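We close this part of the discussion by returning to an individual protein. Part of our work consisted of pairing the sequence of a single chain with a tokenised description of its backbone. What the numbers capture is local backbone geometry rather than side-chain detail. The amino acid sequence and the backbone structure tokens for this protein are reproduced below.
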Amino acid sequence: MNEARPQRPPDSATPAAGGGASSVLSDGAGEPEPGSYRDRNGAVFYRDGRVFRFLSNRALENWRQLQQAPFFKRLSSEGRIVETREANPEGEGIGLDRWAGLLEHARIPYVSYPYEWTFCMLKDAALLHLKLMREALSDGMILKDSSAYNIQWEGMHPVFIDVPSFEPLRQGEPWVGYRQFCELFLYPLMLAAYKGIDYRPWLRGQIDGIPSGQMRAVMSKRDLLRPGVLLHVVAQDALQKRYTGGSNVRGALAEAGFDKALIERNVEKLTALVTRLEPAGTKTTWADYDRTHSYEEAELEKKKAFVREAAARRRWRLAWDLGANTGTFSRIAAEHADYVVAMDGDWMAIEHLYQRGKAGPDARRVLPLVVNLADASPNQGWRGVERKGLAERGRPDLTLCLALVHHIVISANIPLADFIGWLAGLGTAVVIEFVGREDEMVQTLLANREDQYDDYTLQTFRALLAAHFEIRAEAPLKGGKRHIFFAEAKKGQ
């Protein structure tokens, strides 16, 4: 894998959301990853823009067995598992203290979370996890964890990042990650496929996923006939209730006589089930989905040319496209940026981008995410740092805000000054479009609401932009109904 290595470790991405304890690093080792604490056999940290992981004696033994396994070599070479090497602590100037070994991982350009993924992104991540399980089992190993956070994205290409999750398969041991797979992969997909319920708010609200009891509660009698519900929801819920109160579920399962063949059959059945799932009511919509943009072709080409000229001014490390729709301008930005994060609150638009783009030329450099900017993913989890907000994961050098400002100010009721101030706080250059009151899109938004947006004028917009940015270029669009600007943040902002 040829992954970008951003120069600013504090607000860039880690490849290891699932292992380590930030409070147990050696003094001076580096900057700990605060979301890496659940597995006590390792600890992830950053140093000089690089990503390292301490290993315990047990984890080091597992790693050395893993790196000899044929499946690991094959899937690593295919980019399905994050590029990893055993590092020399002495050569890196890193003291091991109580740790036994040290790994270095390639850096993921921008971390994302399952509550920001489209249905098919979550589905493809689930299928990758099951593929890793099948391949590991064939070489006498297993994944001890099944967290969706252990999969990240290199653009539209899913990559498994929690290498120490692979362990030798012990005879008679059950697949202890099965419950976690259901809660973070299967149940969210079932919610969307069987009930038409958006799983993203649910996953954002419960960092460990959807418990079987809650999933069972939303299933009707009719749903019990749907594939997988009786086995993976009802039976799972009954098992959890039976062993509530401290009973040893893992030991009871082991005593029941689990073997490798039983785990393999479960994985195969789950693979078939997940493969068949589709979000309710969308099967015929994806192929031709697109949001109207209200531009005639000549004006649209003029807008594209402005964006392309602005993006071409230099090479950008990280670009954001806010309100990306189906990615037309994300792809233009990708011509001049190492990496682009394309965000839109309309999940169908982002699904369309993903479905069309994952086999395209920008598949490794454009990351599509479902993000409502007025209610974006917050800092959350343990101590509010286990999962990070947008800016904390990597601040952009260039931000596109096209056909967005009127939705922010009018639809979301966010003051124009607040939005421009937030952009300036990112320290980013911007390509930003102002949609005037004469434009039919703004008139539609104002048709059924009180017009209380005195700040929404081109004059006010330009003054606010000039207060925070150096305006480098401006052009009218649609006969002056819209204006597009390229501006760079003032030094010291």
